[in-house]
Amino acid sequence: MKLTYTSSAYTNVQALDMIRSKNMILLTDSQLEGNFSTEQSTVLINLASRCFPYEPREQPNLKNVVDTLAPLQTKPEVASHVMLGIAKHEQAPPTPQRHLSPTGEACSRMDLRAIHQILVKTHYRDDEGTNELSFQEWTQPMRDTLEARKRGDFAFHDRDFKTAIDCYTQEMFIDVGTMVSPTVYARRSLCYLLCDQPDAAL
């Protein structure tokens, strides 16, 4: 139901005086005359009178307004903007999706096999700059560490994930931190996931 009123022509006091005097004709838009019963008009005008008080606490809340107007709705299937002759606002265009890297795509699909293939292909390129070893670091422990990583890499490539976990988890590699390698941690976590050990992958 279209609700139109002419309150702009009257002050709150004048409108309240007219309501008290039951002068509803003066408060009703001429285009609406005859479209609504006296009972419906009375409900609307009483609702309007409750909206006039200056103090918000004295005004009806939104739920009261909706509960009052809902039974008077004669064309609930017609959208409000159509009844009021208002052009509907165009919806904002959807936010363009960010282009994901192959790794991001695989992670979004939780495709562990695809992640494995990506890690095999990228090898240790993501570690560049994190393992700048000095001449003094080329000790026997470091050579042992690199050998363990090499065995782990072969096992990882061949999908022997349990062996890869053992190699990547050697004490001198992970716990002591002889060489920092984000890729080793990523590979080991993936191996745990592929072995159905999600807690260990964290």
UniProtKB/TrEMBL annotation:
Keyword check for Nucleotide-binding: yes
One GO CC term on file: endomembrane system
Chief location: membrane
Highest taxon of source: Eukaryota
Keyword Lyase (UniProt): no
UniProt entry keywords in alphabetical sequence: ATP-binding, Cell membrane, Kinase, Membrane, Nucleotide-binding, Transferase
Protein name, as recorded: Putative serine/threonine-protein kinase
Protein source organism: Cinnamomum micranthum f. kanehirae
